[in-house]
């Protein structure tokens, strides 16, 4: 008895400590995740009782051009967004590492990230306005005719990518800057003594040693970008001509505008699977990403 | 870069000070020629609807002070309660042995990887069935109890904290909660504040869930109120000056935050990536 009592006590204490978090996890993550799968096998408009339809939603999804269009647009958006954002952020980080330690500069660089997606979208919606926006006014000064930007099916997704690059570039730079500061200065000093060029030092020292941060930045920003919603809700609502109807936007629309809960859930479960495969693939790379410094 | 960051904000500020009838003529001006505060009066609700429309308003309405207050309550409640719950759980996962702790911790970490949209629909249904649509409780519900990343992050910290002092207290017969409060917590303010800062930034900017759950203007947080103000304005001729005045007001709390907690915010953001 005496030897069991402390163990029981420790168990009770442990569960008391995690109780609030555990309730939150069960009610708002685990159960809804399982329920999403359940709802995906039903036809349900939220008002009447859900009707079990088996795999019908998934069958419908595979034949739904808008679903494939959404997946394609999300992937395309990631491809537009991530490379530029990462390269610009890295460039900015190197420049800041060299030129300044000023907190004011860091805070200013980070500011766009601290504004909500909604605010940033509003700011750029105005700047890119075809008639009155300053971007077209400035293009006119150098003789370029006005562009429709968010109103043009060819330019809308690119414009949204540009808006989010503006919001995230500073964040990426701050993360890289933190990584840069862990690289010992003597590596550069000895390389400089051997007459290595700036570019050689960047490619042979900086880039390899930044790999762990690089992986972190890529994993979080790719999964984040794939789920873009807010900016589109404010700027284009999926238009013009479906050119920005990315998958998450289409899912939310099906659920909360068309009240097709089952169909929306089927697509969201599919999206989850796609992300899971991507994450596993990334974990595989992550394992190879231990810092070369260690 | 500073220009790239600041320039759009200056354009917004300028626009907010221009009377909407003059927008076309002043598109390339960097300073307002005849500044006016009428747009601010409009979004702060100081004008009647008729006066607002005469001054280029669209008749759309935004109660920006109420939205600010809602955002402050929403963010404040979540930052305090969620951070406390996560700290407790993280401490237990780092320091206590109880059956199932490893599996549960693994499950918490896995919760970080589920795309928000997947659990959004069942959570909406759940909150609706509880009768909590358009209530504060419903708006904060999915956030207040836990956050996978915070538990993960704080557990890492507690693992690195030396055990000796806690051991000594345990031998003296102190109970786990007292040890946590009196010993572990005071040593952990820095990482707890880091997590609280990040949570504050994320929750202040959160859009999708409050947008789905809190349609009632009385409950709308700032991003939701701004979006509905924007979508009320006609597509052809939005009330740009009014929108930009609202944007300026909505930017001020973030600027103030950055001004007061600048170092903390910069370090918090950097810390997540560096580790």
Automatic annotation (TrEMBL), chain A:
Every ABC transmembrane type-1 domain range: 71-282
One Gene Ontology cellular component: plasma membrane
Any one GO biological process: transmembrane transport
UniProt xrefs under CDD domains: TM_PBP2 (cd06261)
Protein localization: Cell membrane
PROSITE patterns in the record: ABC_TM1
Major localization listed first in the record, in broad terms: membrane
Keyword Transport belongs to the record: yes
Membrane topology per record: Multi-pass membrane protein
InterPro entries assigned: ABC_transporter_permease, MetI-like, MetI-like_sf
Keyword entries, A-Z: Cell membrane, Membrane, Sugar transport, Transmembrane, Transmembrane helix, Transport
Zinc among keywords: no
Transmembrane segments: 12-31, 75-96, 103-127, 156-180, 209-229, 263-281
Similarity remark: Belongs to the binding-protein-dependent transport system permease family.
Name of the protein described by the UniProt record: ABC-type sugar transport system, permease component
TrEMBL record, chain B:
Record-linked Gene3D superfamilies: MetI-like (1.10.3720.10)
Transmembrane segments: 72-94, 103-127, 139-158, 179-201, 240-261
Keyword Amino-acid biosynthesis: no
InterPro entries noted in UniProt: MetI-like (IPR000515), MetI-like_sf (IPR035906)
GO BP annotations, alphabetical order: transmembrane transport
Location of the ABC transmembrane type-1 domain: 68-261
Gene Ontology CC entries for this record: plasma membrane
Keyword Repressor assigned: no
Subcellular localization: Cell membrane
Similarity comment: family membership: Belongs to the binding-protein-dependent transport system permease family.
Listed name of the protein: ABC-type sugar transport system, permease component
Source species: Gynuella sunshinyii YC6258
